[in-house]
Amino acid sequence: MSISLPTEQIVAAQKAAFDSLLSVAHSSLNSIEKFNSLNLSTTRNLFAGQLESIGNLFSAKTPQDIVALQKLLLQPQIEKITTYARQFHDIATEAHDDFVNLVEGQHAELNDKVSSLLDGYAKSSDNSGAAVAAVKSAISAANSAFANANKAARQVAGITGAGVSATVQAIGAANQSQAVSRKKVAA
After folding, report:
1. Cα–Cα nearest to 175, from 88, 83, 90, 89
2. Which of 41, 46, 120, 123 is nearest to 80 (CA)?
3. Are 116 and 30 in contact (CB under 8 A)?
4. For the whole prediction, is pTM greater than 0.85?
């Protein structure tokens, strides 16, 4: 006995696939827009900082003033770069989470549909119990593998996020420490 799908189910499946594609496209475009906005804003800020630094260098009267200004001007640039790295990581993490949530939702929906289809087939055929049980067992094993892979990917993302946060904090602390020592030396 074969399984036949009504036209309504085929159309609904195609619509669901199209909706999923649209969700991925919207999420991707949203992430690209955020990355572009971040890049433009960071470039604008770095450029403005460089212009201000050049203006300050022109106002220096002695070589010692130039050296002191260069040291003082480096810290804000480093802070801007670390802020950029943190914001870039945040956008990437958000995009990853959106994609994972979409995949998980589609995976759960697919499992429900396949299970429903298998149950319908089991009811319509007298000798299908063993075959349906075997397919359900294979699906269960695949779901378990998917869950384990997803858990591992989330752990890697968490470790990466912690590493980025720790690096940004360490750079910020080092900059603060250098700023304090420069102020003490200047005083």
Report:
1. 83
2. 46
3. no
4. no
